[in-house]
Amino acid sequence: MKDKAFNDGADLKNFSKLPFLIVSPLGRMGKRIARCFNEAGYEPNVYLKAGYTTIMAPLCNAALAGCFTSHMNLARWHYQMNDDVNIFPLYLRAEPVLLKINVIYSRQRYLNHHCRYFIDLLEEQFSVIGGEKLKRISSVNY
User: Fold this and answer.
1) Percent of the chain with pLDDT over 90
2) Distance between CA atoms of residues 18 and 122, nearest Å
3) Is the pTM above the cut of 0.70?
Protein backbone atom coordinates (compact mmCIF):
# COMPACT_ATOMS: atom_id res chain seq x y z
CA MET A 1 0.00 0.00 0.00
CA LYS A 2 2.05 2.90 -1.30
CA ASP A 3 0.03 6.00 -0.46
CA LYS A 4 1.62 9.28 0.60
CA ALA A 5 -1.71 10.33 2.15
CA PHE A 6 -0.92 8.01 5.06
CA ASN A 7 1.99 10.29 6.02
CA ASP A 8 -0.64 12.38 7.77
CA GLY A 9 -2.19 9.40 9.55
CA ALA A 10 -4.53 6.57 8.78
CA ASP A 11 -8.09 5.53 9.35
CA LEU A 12 -8.64 1.89 10.30
CA LYS A 13 -11.40 1.64 7.70
CA ASN A 14 -8.61 1.30 5.13
CA PHE A 15 -7.28 -1.86 6.78
CA SER A 16 -10.34 -4.04 7.37
CA LYS A 17 -8.80 -7.09 5.64
CA LEU A 18 -5.40 -6.88 7.33
CA PRO A 19 -4.60 -9.25 10.22
CA PHE A 20 -3.56 -7.40 13.39
CA LEU A 21 -1.38 -7.93 16.41
CA ILE A 22 -3.59 -6.51 19.16
CA VAL A 23 -2.72 -5.23 22.62
CA SER A 24 -4.96 -6.54 25.38
CA PRO A 25 -7.97 -4.22 25.71
CA LEU A 26 -7.45 -3.99 29.47
CA GLY A 27 -4.77 -1.28 29.28
CA ARG A 28 -4.99 2.33 28.13
CA MET A 29 -3.55 1.64 24.70
CA GLY A 30 -5.76 -1.40 24.16
CA LYS A 31 -8.86 0.62 25.07
CA ARG A 32 -7.94 3.37 22.62
CA ILE A 33 -7.32 0.90 19.82
CA ALA A 34 -10.63 -0.83 20.56
CA ARG A 35 -12.35 2.59 20.21
CA CYS A 36 -10.62 3.08 16.85
CA PHE A 37 -11.96 -0.26 15.58
CA ASN A 38 -15.39 0.55 16.97
CA GLU A 39 -15.40 3.89 15.14
CA ALA A 40 -14.19 2.16 11.96
CA GLY A 41 -17.20 -0.16 12.26
CA TYR A 42 -15.56 -3.57 12.23
CA GLU A 43 -13.97 -6.20 14.45
CA PRO A 44 -10.26 -6.70 13.76
CA ASN A 45 -8.93 -9.87 12.21
CA VAL A 46 -6.74 -10.78 15.21
CA TYR A 47 -3.56 -12.67 14.41
CA LEU A 48 -2.26 -12.46 17.99
CA LYS A 49 -3.21 -10.76 21.25
CA ALA A 50 -0.49 -9.71 23.68
CA GLY A 51 -0.32 -7.84 26.95
CA TYR A 52 2.66 -5.69 26.00
CA THR A 53 3.52 -3.58 22.97
CA THR A 54 7.22 -4.48 23.06
CA ILE A 55 6.54 -7.70 21.15
CA MET A 56 4.51 -5.93 18.45
CA ALA A 57 7.17 -4.16 16.38
CA PRO A 58 9.43 -7.21 15.86
CA LEU A 59 6.44 -9.36 14.82
CA CYS A 60 5.16 -6.65 12.50
CA ASN A 61 8.64 -6.43 10.99
CA ALA A 62 8.38 -10.14 10.18
CA ALA A 63 5.37 -9.24 7.96
CA LEU A 64 2.97 -11.34 10.04
CA ALA A 65 0.39 -8.62 10.64
CA GLY A 66 -0.21 -4.94 11.24
CA CYS A 67 0.35 -3.64 14.74
CA PHE A 68 0.03 -0.67 17.05
CA THR A 69 2.88 0.40 19.25
CA SER A 70 3.90 3.40 21.27
CA HIS A 71 6.11 6.16 19.95
CA MET A 72 8.68 5.19 22.58
CA ASN A 73 8.75 1.55 21.49
CA LEU A 74 8.86 2.52 17.82
CA ALA A 75 11.78 4.89 18.50
CA ARG A 76 13.72 1.83 19.59
CA TRP A 77 12.68 -0.33 16.62
CA HIS A 78 12.19 1.89 13.59
CA TYR A 79 15.85 1.79 12.51
CA GLN A 80 15.64 -2.00 12.31
CA MET A 81 12.33 -2.14 10.41
CA ASN A 82 12.38 -3.62 6.94
CA ASP A 83 12.01 -1.30 3.96
CA ASP A 84 8.53 -2.61 3.18
CA VAL A 85 7.07 -1.65 6.58
CA ASN A 86 4.89 1.46 6.62
CA ILE A 87 4.91 3.58 9.78
CA PHE A 88 2.30 6.27 10.39
CA PRO A 89 0.16 7.73 13.16
CA LEU A 90 -3.32 6.42 13.91
CA TYR A 91 -6.23 8.84 14.21
CA LEU A 92 -9.49 8.68 16.13
CA ARG A 93 -12.10 11.34 15.33
CA ALA A 94 -9.52 13.37 13.37
CA GLU A 95 -7.12 13.47 16.36
CA PRO A 96 -3.90 11.43 16.72
CA VAL A 97 -4.14 8.55 19.19
CA LEU A 98 -1.72 9.48 21.97
CA LEU A 99 -0.80 8.05 25.34
CA LYS A 100 0.36 10.54 27.93
CA ILE A 101 2.89 9.68 30.59
CA ASN A 102 2.65 11.52 33.88
CA VAL A 103 5.02 11.87 36.83
CA ILE A 104 2.95 12.29 39.96
CA TYR A 105 4.23 13.55 43.27
CA SER A 106 2.81 15.48 46.20
CA ARG A 107 3.46 19.23 46.29
CA GLN A 108 3.12 19.07 50.09
CA ARG A 109 6.11 16.78 50.39
CA TYR A 110 9.77 17.67 49.97
CA LEU A 111 11.17 16.64 46.57
CA ASN A 112 14.82 15.80 47.14
CA HIS A 113 17.48 16.44 44.51
CA HIS A 114 17.59 12.75 43.47
CA CYS A 115 13.88 12.77 42.61
CA ARG A 116 14.17 16.16 40.87
CA TYR A 117 17.13 14.86 38.83
CA PHE A 118 15.15 11.74 37.89
CA ILE A 119 12.22 13.88 36.71
CA ASP A 120 14.63 16.07 34.70
CA LEU A 121 16.11 12.98 33.03
CA LEU A 122 12.64 11.68 32.16
CA GLU A 123 11.61 15.01 30.65
CA GLU A 124 14.81 15.20 28.62
CA GLN A 125 14.52 11.63 27.33
CA PHE A 126 10.86 11.94 26.37
CA SER A 127 11.45 15.25 24.61
CA VAL A 128 14.13 13.57 22.48
CA ILE A 129 11.89 10.58 21.70
CA GLY A 130 8.85 12.78 21.07
CA GLY A 131 10.83 14.92 18.65
CA GLU A 132 11.81 11.99 16.45
CA LYS A 133 9.94 11.81 13.16
CA LEU A 134 9.06 8.16 12.81
CA LYS A 135 6.60 8.27 9.89
CA ARG A 136 7.64 6.34 6.81
CA ILE A 137 5.80 5.15 3.73
CA SER A 138 7.55 2.29 2.02
CA SER A 139 8.94 2.79 -1.45
CA VAL A 140 8.40 -0.93 -2.13
CA ASN A 141 5.59 -1.60 -4.65
CA TYR A 142 3.07 -4.28 -3.77
Assistant:
1) 6
2) 36
3) no
